[in-house]
Amino acid sequence: MALSLTPLTPGFVAEASGLDISRPLDEVSVRAIEKAMDDYAVLVFRDQPLDQDQQIRFAKYFGPLDLGLRKVKGGAHRFDYAELADISNVTADGAVAGREHAKIVGNIANQLWHSDSSFQRPRAKYSMLSAVVVPGHGGETEFADLRAAYDHLPADMKATIRDLKAVHYALHSRFLLGDTDYTEAQRQAIPAVQWPLVQTDPRSGRKILFVGIHACEVVGMTVAEGRMLLLDLLEHATQREFVYRHHWRVGDLVMWDNTATLHRGRRFDFGQRRELRRATTEEVQTSIEAAA
Ligand SMILES: [Fe+2]
Description:
The chain is an alpha+beta fold.
């Protein structure tokens, strides 16, 4: 069987079929998925429930795996692999977390538009999110196309931001939500990084407007001016015309390119169980990184 693609939105999201991703993949299939990720930026695999071992194996085809925020707060973990992120409202002992539980802050932070691990170097490349339990209502994930967002910027804004860099910091979104209970060591665990606001994807050649909630300042601007510019750009990038909303079914695996998209979870009843499991690859060194 070979990879088959059915566009869900033109040039951005495609449903991928024809491959059983729970089984080992050959080189041709892996390269086909990477090519599809360049042509689109989000792939939806339906009816492909993966166990932890299968998800780790699939993710490793695409690069070294990322640990993300677990570098700040380790803590109890439900999974066999530290590289699997527990995107759920469930505690380490398997119970639905109460509204006051620290886990819920993470759920809410995920509802802000972001690129996974843009606050570190190397940043994240592909995230692969597997749906284990989904709530009856809400809890969708939305994706915004940062290539289309760049293409549709007015010419004067393209000129304004052409050489600008943004500062991305891991805890900025947490601080925004009033989650400030971190030690100095935790605050320093992932030092802030800078990324150009405008990037050219080395594989697809397309320009990207690289913004998101982890971006908190613009180099060379006051905090206020930079933050306002970032909010304006984020508002532009997340207009409905650039956004796809994914309605989860158990067994879905959605794969996206964090260097070309933003995403956010949508509201759901925190009293209902929502369990997704994420594996994420690190971006290999690129000309963008070398320039940053
Ligand atoms: Fe995320």
